[in-house]
Amino acid sequence: MQITSARSLDDGVLERDFVLGDVEGVLWTPAAASASAPAPLVLLGHPGGLAAMRGRLEGRARSSARLGFASAAIELPGKGTRSGLPVVDQARADLREALAAGALPGDDVIDRLILPLVDRAVPEWQALVDAALALPEVGGPVAVSGGVIAVGVRMAVVEPRVVAAGLFAGSYVPRTIIEEARRLRVPVHVLLQWDDEGNDRQRALDLFDAIGSQEKTLQANVGGHTGVPAHAGEDAARFFARHLRPGWGPRG
User: Fold this and answer.
1) Beta 23-29 vs 39-45: how paired, if at all?
2) Rounded to an integer, what distance in angstroms lies between the CA atom of residue 203 and that of residue 173?
3) Above 50 in pLDDT, residue 251?
4) Cα gap 28→31, rounded to integer Å
5) 246: how many CB neighbours lie within 10 A of its CB?
6) In this structure, are strands 2-8 and 14-20 parallel, antiparallel, or unpaired?
7) Side-chain half-sphere of 105: how many Cα atoms within 13 Å?
8) Between the CA of residue 183 and those of 33, 117, 168, 201, 210, what are the distances in Å?
9) What is the mean pLDDT of residues 55-76?
10) Do residues 145 and 42 make contact, with C-beta atoms less than 8 angstroms apart?
11) Residue 117's closest CA among 87, 95, 157?
């Protein structure tokens, strides 16, 4: 992890831009994080375009910092300044064509749209965990929060350092990922916007049903993709506090 810039935010959170290999990212650590009191780590997923998402990611990171957690985000494959993925770009065009015709996209389109991202992104996230946990002020455990839900599922299945996953059902899910979800064992909190125009609600419900975790929660709220109510964030915060720092955090 090569740090390229650093600044202290007004609440004492340290924000550091970095490059990991050829992937850009941002790390936020709370003021209290230190070698003697290392912070758990929350991986902040997003739909891509790190620069465009920067403000929203910073807000999520500040909220995590108030709970005593570090946060990190990296650019998705094919997004931002990274080289495009022609297969994904063509699938996105096919998706728009299907939706314009009033149809749901077929499995082939969803696979070409999502699986290349999953296959490339998850090893990069694992490398991010390696680099972040090598810092003295970041000590784990690790959680996944939001982003492309298929990426979050795969990461929670294959990465043993992830102890909890907060997933947002706001993107299409390949059927192979639904099958992978049966292997999930960590606690899972899924947020579903019931009227999300960019999400196949039934497939999201199928995914939740398939999740093999003993503890799993589905929170569904009326509204579109950007209509997530404030209390949903509060519920997610309680979920992460419960699993990243047992016995500490918000109550109620």
Assistant:
1) unpaired
2) 7
3) no
4) 10
5) 8
6) antiparallel
7) 28
8) 33, 20, 19, 22, 9
9) 94
10) yes
11) 87
pTM, entire model: 0.92
* Domain segments of the chain as ranges: 2-244
Instruction: Compute the distance between CA of residue 109 and CA of residue 40 in angstroms, rounded to an integer.
Output: 37
Query: If you count DSSP H runs as helices and E runs as strands, how many of each does the chain have, helices first?
Result: 7, 9
pLDDT score recorded for residue 246: 63
Cβ atoms 180, 157 nearer than 8 A:
yes
The two structure tokens encoding residue 43: 């991986």
Structure tokens at 235: 């519920």
Measured between alpha carbons, how far is 251 from 241 in angstroms, rounded to an integer? 9
Q: 123 CB contacts (<8 Å, ≥6 apart)?
A: none
The strand order across the sheet containing 39-45 reads 2-8, 14-20, 23-29, 70-74, 39-45, 138-146, 162-168, 188-193, 216-221
Which CATH superfamily does the domain covering 2-244 fall into? Answer: Alpha/Beta hydrolase fold, catalytic domain (3.40.50.1820)
Tell me the torsion sign for CA atoms 92, 129, 59, 165: positive
Measured CA to CA, the distance from residue 200 to residue 170 in angstroms comes to: 8
Is the predicted pLDDT of residue 51 greater than 50, yes or no?
A: yes
CA nearest neighbour of 150 among 193, 99, 81, 199: 199
